[in-house]
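Hi all, posting the design record for the shared folder.

TITLE: backbone redesign
STEP: 1 of 1
STRUCTURE INPUT:
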């Protein structure tokens, strides 16, 4: 059973007579490649029925407009190359010049697109007006809070009493001395434990036991002015 055409599809007007012949010939010349009657009719969207297309192709071949080739049971038709217009050298040179000009225009357009893409990426990564307003408000609030905290210092108010400073110094001296004593005990014990181990095995053992050695920050602190005995002595006096 033949399927009905969909209501949304436009109907193609069927060509007849000379109009159909001219349409087939123009199509074959424009494509300039072998075609069978079925292909030509299909590519013309049924404007020329298959049976009529076959007759037109044979008639055009008899007139010398087309060349007919038979391969087994299949017949192909191709435009007669002798009837095709040769491309003059001047026209070919003009087309080549136009191609070069278009290539240059394309290069400029590609550069413009690249620049526009980069600018668009910068714009997308920039904060919006709402985000900027929020960030400015947060910064202003932070500045106001810091100014309030600085006000006592600017007015000469003593925030920490001498007694408090003395207590802090005493606590610092006490617990740093304790830390130095415990570190010495640990280093002595650790040297005994790892004396027969290679450096790699000693490192692995420390990792297994979860031992954390002094970091570069600790070393820098120990060499800094805060831990120099003479400075601490002056501070204690």
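Okay, here is what came back for every position:
SEQUENCE:
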């Amino acid at each position: 059973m033949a399927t009905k055409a969909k209501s949304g599809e436009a109907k193609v007007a069927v060509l007849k007579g000379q109009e159909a012949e001219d349409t087939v010939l123009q199509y074959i010349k424009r494509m300039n490649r072998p075609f069978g009657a079925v292909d030509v009719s299909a590519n013309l969207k049924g404007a020329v029925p298959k049976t009529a297309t076959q007759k037109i192709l044979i008639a055009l071949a008899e007139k010398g407009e087309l060349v007919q080739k038979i391969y087994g049971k299949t017949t192909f038709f191709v435009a007669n190359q002798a009837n095709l217009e040769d491309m003059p050298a001047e026209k070919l040179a003009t087309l080549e010049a136009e191609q070069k000009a278009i290539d240059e225009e394309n290069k400029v357009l590609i550069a413009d697109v690249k620049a526009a893409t980069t600018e668009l990426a910068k714009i997308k990564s920039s904060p919006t007006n709402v985000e900027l307003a929020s960030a400015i408000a947060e910064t202003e609030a932070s500045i106001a809070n810091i100014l309030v905290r600085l006000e006592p210092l600017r007015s000469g108010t003593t925030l920490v009493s001498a007694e408090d400073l003395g207590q802090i110094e005493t606590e610092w001296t006490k617990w740093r001395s304790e830390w130095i004593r415990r570190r010495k005990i640990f280093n002595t014990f650790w040297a005994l434990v790892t004396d027969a181990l290679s450096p790699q095995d000693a490192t692995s053992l420390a990792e297994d036991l979860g031992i954390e050695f002094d970091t570069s920050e600790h070393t820098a602190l120990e060499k800094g002015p805060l831990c120099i005995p003479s400075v601490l002595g002056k501070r204690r006096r």
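COMMENT: The first strand starts at residue 66 and ends at 71.
Let me know if anyone wants the other runs.
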